[in-house]
Specification:
Blueprint: H1 3-27, H2 30-40, E1 42-47, H3 54-69, E2 74-79, H4 83-95, E3 105-107, H5 109-117, H6 126-129, E4 144-151, E5 153-157, H7 170-173, E6 186-188, H8 193-202, H9 204-216, E7 218-221, H10 228-231, E8 237-241, H11 244-252, E9 258-261, E10 269-275, H12 283-292, H13 296-306, H14 317-325, H15 332-340, H16 345-358
Parallel strand pairs: 1-2, 6-7
Antiparallel strand pairs: 3-10, 4-10, 5-8, 5-9
């Protein structure tokens, strides 16, 4: 076959695939997905061990899902590696032509960006198919849907930080008038990402200066899953927690003396979204479940087990808090653009500098 014939054949195949995708995109309805989902029954899901409240929360989600759609769905859950590793795994599976290991993928902007760039996500007209899903919820249009909103912020123990000395922003942490209260006692996260994203508000030089001052007064490093050490009083304050408001609500419900405050305005925010990877074993059930997680009954389960919710679902804890406190969140598009630009030499150098500062 000549090169021209090969080209024409390839173009014809690509055209046929695009037509097929367009028809599939247009053909989905709630009714057709429910009918197809009833034949699939099992939703395979790999994520962090405590995702959606662990087994108890997932059981509640199964019950609410089946009640809404008249299905007999079961979540076949397995704990897996971190979100970056799971994204890389799905991309490799898709490129090899295999079925992916999880029907759905949960990740924030950075993790979903990895999948988006590799064209690893199913195209689904969520807002067009499901009446309760809005276009605003599609963080990556026709690919991902917001499941819960996680504003970043400072957390501290109110029994150990006097009210008149309490920080109201990240800059207060290194203010010479306030910092003696926690100098040599403050915990900071070991991650570069929260500082790198802070540059969207501050610029790189201001972030590096802040990081140096913060490290100079720090007492140690805490991961985002270790906020209990603030509750216990081992550290009186933590410079940043990736899900600060949800953590505060969770611990306050247990009687813990924890307060969360935003570090910047607008607040640096992680938008955790669900998507359906290409080659999913149970694609109809997966699409239905992604949309279901934005319903009030699904959000109630998240709030019950994790104190998490979407600010875009009316009546949720996050929705009410942000509206009543008049707090503004960083635009998803702003942080998405940051990740979709990829790792420039300048960006990699900046992160390398931050990593070096954190190790001091």
């Amino acid at each position: 076959m000549t090169k021209l014939n090969l080209f024409l054949a390839g173009a014809a195949l690509l055209g046929a695939q695009l037509v097929h995708s367009a028809k599939a995109f247009a053909a989905d309805t709630v009714e057709s997905l429910v009918a197809a989902a009833r034949k699939e029954e099992e939703l395979v899901f790999i994520a962090g061990a405590g995702t959606f409240g662990g087994r108890k929360g997932q059981s509640d989600l199964e019950a609410a899902f089946n009640k809404r759609f008249g299905t007999k769905m079961k979540i076949a859950f397995a704990a897996g590696p971190d979100m970056n590793a799971r994204a890389a795994r799905h991309i490799a599976e898709i490129k090899s032509g295999n079925k992916v290991s999880s029907d759905i993928f949960l990740g924030s902007q950075s993790h979903q960006a990895l999948m988006h760039v590799e064209n690893a996500l199913e195209k689904v007209n969520y807002a067009g198919i499901f009446p309760w899903v809005t276009k605003q919820m599609e963080i990556y249009p026709s690919e991902t849907v917001l499941t819960y909103t996680s504003p970043n912020g400072i957390i501290y123990n109110v029994n150990l930080i006097p009210k008149d000395k309490a920080p109201k922003s990240y800059l207060d942490l290194v203010d010479p008038k306030l910092s003696p209260t926690w100098a040599g006692k403050i915990a900071i996260p070991p991650y570069v990402a929260w500082l790198a994203e802070l540059s969207l508000n501050w610029g790189t030089e201001k972030v590096k200066d802040f990081a140096r001052k913060l490290v100079a007064i720090s007492a140690g490093r805490l991961r985002y899953s270790e906020e209990e050490r603030i509750v216990s009083g081992e550290y009186p304050i933590m410079a940043n927690l990736g899900d600060s408001l949800s953590a505060m609500w969770k611990w306050k419900a247990k009687g813990a003396p924890i307060m969360a405050v935003p570090g910047t305005t607008p607040i640096n925010t992680d938008y955790f979204q669900l998507s359906v990877p290409r080659n999913a074993p149970h694609p109809n059930l997966a699409k239905l479940f992604v949309a279901f997680m934005t319903t009030k009954e699904a959000q109630e389960v998240l709030q019950k087990h994790e104190s998490r919710s979407s600010h875009l679902v009316e009546g949720t804890l996050m929705n009410k808090h942000l509206r009543e406190s008049k707090l503004s969140l960083q635009s998803p598009k702003e942080s998405i653009d940051y990740y979709l630009k990829g790792e420039s030499d300048e960006g990699l150098q900046f992160k390398a500098e931050l990593a070096k500062i954190l190790k001091q």
